Every structure is written in structure tokens, then in C-alpha cells.
Amino acid sequence: MMLAALGDIHGNYTALETTLTWAKDNGITHLAFLGDYVTDCPYPRRTMRLLYEAQNAFETVFIRGNREDYMLRLAATADTSPGDTLPAFYGSRMGNIFSTYAHLSPDDIAFFAALPISTRVEYENAPALRLCHGSLDNNRTVVRPDRPSMAETLAALDTDFLLCAHSHLQFLYRDPRTGKTVINGGSVGHPCREKTTNAEFVVLTPENGTWTAQLHSLPYDIRAAVRDFDGSDFLREAGVWARAVRQTLLTGKNMTYAVLVTVARLRTEQHLPDNLSPTEEEPLWEAAAEILGIP
Which residues of the chain have pLDDT under 50? Predict the structure, then answer.
């Protein structure tokens, strides 16, 4: 068997489709999907269709990411149902989330609700794996070798191998004290570490009672993904956030984080409260886009 772990697709169905085709052509038999399937790109139902189709082509396991939690929270609190027309102006901070929700179906929401935060999986002739999006009990925790969360996660880990996502940082970390290994294959659909704009993932193969891991960086048609932004209503619905995502796809630079930091700085400099309405806050987002050169 060969297992590919795919995380942080973020609605980029073009990158996902290229990765799934590669998996079929290269002998991958099992897929572990590590969360954050939607938001940030147009046409989320196209991503969901590919995920459902993957269940028929591979042995699959799915984890719930924080972006799926956002969709579930909206389903529990919003005045509209998934699939309804976007009802109002939500601005650049929340437009991405509401736009994605409006373009999903009730079946997609039910699919998300059934997913675990983490799970343990076992395959023949291989050590058990623990899968999660962020940390073992919180899909918003960033687990990285340079953060205290790594030591905390290793201390709670009940297997020798962990596959995680969320940070969009591709790495393989082996604890020198325990030998436990944490692997993040990077982001399939939203890489943002400047070194690459490719789809990133990891392939694991059982060998001599352990796992060997190979990190992959796969080119895909980025221009096609970007054309979707220009050919849909997503730029209007998600505002500056959508433009920042588009710039990130083109450059690999984390422009979404940069714009959040810049908006917060402008709010502080102008002595504005944190609870601005979307309409009141929108000029800050436009000013941040101009400062950062986001077209």
C-alpha cells in the first residue's frame, strides 16, 4: 500500500484534481484528508465533488479542520441555509466564509458534522498513525517544531507517527528523545511559504515495520485557479480577502496573514474599536490592500 496525506485544500479544486490524478497514476491506494477542504477559493462544490469521488477511487479517511467548523457554526446560527443566496454585505473579513457557506449544500454540512477532530488508523504491517488537522484536541492549534505545541502534542500522542496540517508548513520532525515523528505534508491548495506555489503533500509507505515518508511539491495550473476568481462572484462577495488569496496563489507569499495584520495595525493607529460593522471596517481592508500592493 501507499498512503498520501492531503491537507489544507481551501477550495482550490484545480490543485486537488491535479494531486488526485497524480495519486492514481503513481500507485497511491489510500488517502488521508486532513481538513480545511473549503473556503478561500470559488466554487466549493467542485472541491466537494472531487472529495466524494475520491472515496470511490481510494481507501479514504477524513478529519475535520477549522474551516469545516466555521461552516458548522454558520449552519447552527445563520438565518440562511447552505445553498441560499448570499443575503447581505459581509465585508472582507467574513465574506469568504459566508460566500462559501452559501455555495454548499445541506449534504456537505452533514458530511462535515460527521468528521472527527482526530483519529487513529492502523494498516497491515505498519505502525498505527494518529491523524489530526491542528493538534490532537483542537483543530485551530498550530503544531510546528519551533512552538511549545509540538512538545505538548508529542507528550499526548498515543502512536509513534502523527500526520497533521493547518500550518501550511511542510516538515518532518522526529523527536530526538522518544523517536516519535510528526509529519506535515504542507498545503495542497493554499501554500504560503514563499518558496513554492505548488501543491504540497506527503506520501507514506510501510517498510520494515515502520513508515518511510516522502514530501512532494507538485506543479499545477495556477493560472486556471486564478481565472476562477475573475470569472465568479467570489471577488465581489469576499472582497479584499479573495484578492489576497489570489495573490498568495500567484506568489506563494502569505498575503492573507499580511492583510489581517495590516488591518489590525490601521485600526489601532486610528483608535477604532474592535467591533466595527462590516461596512465601517471595509475602508481599512481597502487601505491595507493598497499598502500591500494587492490588486
Answer: none
